[in-house]
Structures are given as structure tokens and as C-alpha cells.
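Recap for those who missed Tuesday's class. We walked through two folding examples back to back. For each one, the amino acid string is listed first and its predicted C-alpha cells come directly after. Nothing is annotated here on purpose, so try labeling regions yourself before you check the end of the notes.
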Amino acid sequence: MRSRFGGVVLDAGGNPQAVLGALPCWPGVFSVWMFATDLWPAVWRGAVRFARDVLAPQMIAAGGHRAQCFAAAGHDDAHRLLRRLGFQAEGTARRMGRAGEDFIMFGAVR
């Protein structure tokens, strides 16, 4: 299942386990996002394939030259995934989280 800039990753039983997508912020720049269940380890490869093979080409076709997102500073798994997708850490947003947690801004450019 997907929309123009997003999709749902299903497990082998057809149950949704992750959603990911992108929102245009302004011309050429997209904010990317993702949420997943605790069964993420079973579906992460499908999410990476979708991001690489479907979502990125859709953003590029729409004139995208930059994708960016925030990830909680302590969320090492998210940081690894973003780096795998070509993102680089660009800076820290201090106390951005609901409980005052820091977040790291990641960006990828064409």
C-alpha cells in the first residue's frame, strides 16, 4: 500500500509493521519520516527497498534535491538506517523532544 510519497510495510502475514513517507517542505526539499512496530527487525529490509526504489525516485521526479529528518539523539538504529540510505548527521536540535530530549538533524542531497 502506498500514496504518492509514502507507503506501509507489511509483514509476511500482511499486517502493517511500519509506515514511511515524505512531505514537501518547500520546492525541492522533503521532510522524511517513519514509524515502526516492535517487529521492525522482520521488515526493515522491505522499508529500505521501498525508500530506495520507490520513495527516493518519486521525490526526485517531483524536483527534490534534498531530504531531511530528525532522529532522537539516542536512537542508534535509526542513525544506522539513515546513514545506510545516504543521510549524514548535520547538527543537533537541543531539547526538541517532548521530555526535553535532543534530536539530530540528518540530511541527504542529490
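Example two. Treat it independently of the first, because the proteins are unrelated.
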Amino acid sequence: MILVLPQIIAYIRTSTDKQDLNNQKLEILEWAHKKEVKVDAFVEITISSRKTSKQRRIEEVLQMLTDTDTLVVTELSRLGRSTAEVIALVNELVARNIRVIILKQNLDISQHDMTSKIVITLFSLFAELERDLISLRTKEALAAKKQQGITLGKPKGTIQKSKFDADLERIKDLLKLGLSVRKIALLLGYKNHLALNTYINKRKLRGQRS
């Protein structure tokens, strides 16, 4: 039987500053030296937090980590784009019995520690509060615009781009020949003739002259 020892994985991310990336690595190495432990691997990336979790290599980190491993980051904000995303990731890691250490916030979160459970509960409450505040700010902003007489949404009668635009002239010609919308859709290779009919009605194509 092969004994797999727990490993320590460090994840460091910055938007653009290479120096910041180096500083994060140095901070984690200093922590490891103080704790007399070895960091088995560094996952480094310089990319915006707006990118997907795959682009930010979070998925790669999750695949590397196994039961009883440890993930180390310099601060919580490195793990996600929002409080909710960070909490979801931490919850997933803890559920998998992976220890999470955040240096700046001085947090050591594990599955079996009561303090960690309290911290995660508080995090979840903060994430919910953040969602509520965003929703409230959005509603207040919309209400303020409405009071100022600003019309919300797209102006009435706005015609959006459509996949049918590429065949606009052919649609006009076929309508002039008296073909039904169903037959036109069939000829042009569209499966949904109802959507084509809506397109024709909105643009008032029936009876148009070239």
C-alpha cells in the first residue's frame, strides 16, 4: 500500500504586478520557514479576478488538493471575485477535509475545528449581506432614475440585431414571391419559423418595396 503524505499547496495571484506576485511568494515562504514546514507546490498566475475560475487556475488547484492537504494564500481576496465566490470555495475545501490558511486575516480553517465552523458561518452571513446590499443599491438607483424621469430599459421600438439579418434581402424577395413564412424558414435552413415570423412582423417586411 502506497502512503500518500499530506501536501501544502500555495496559490498566489495578482492582476498585473509581478512584484506583488513575488511579495506573496516571499510572505508564504517566510510563513513556511516559521512553521518549519515545506510548501510542495506554488500555483502562480498574473491575471484579472474577472476571469473565470479555470483561467485563474482555481480548478487546477482544486484538482491538485486531496484529503488532509493544506491550501495557503496570502489573503482571502486572492480566491475569488466576490465574497460569495470566496465563501463557496472555502466551504468546498473544508467539506473535502482540506485545511485553508489565510495569512493576512490570520485564519486557519479546518473541518474539525469549532472556531473554523464559526468563521465559516460568519463568512456566509457576510456573503448574504453583500448580496442584499447590492440588490438594495440596484433598486435604489433604479428608483432614483425613475423619479428623475429617466426611461429605464431600451427605448420603445428599438430593434435589436438578429440572426435573420444575414438573410434579410432573401427574406424580402421570398415574401414578394408569396411564400409562407414556414416555407421561407425551410428554404433558408431555420428550424423555428415562429421566430422568423416575429422578425418579419417587427421589421414590417411584408409589402415592402426594394
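Answers for example two:
Residues 163-202 form one domain.
Helices lie at 18-35, 58-64, 83-95, 114-147, 168-176, 181-188, 193-202.
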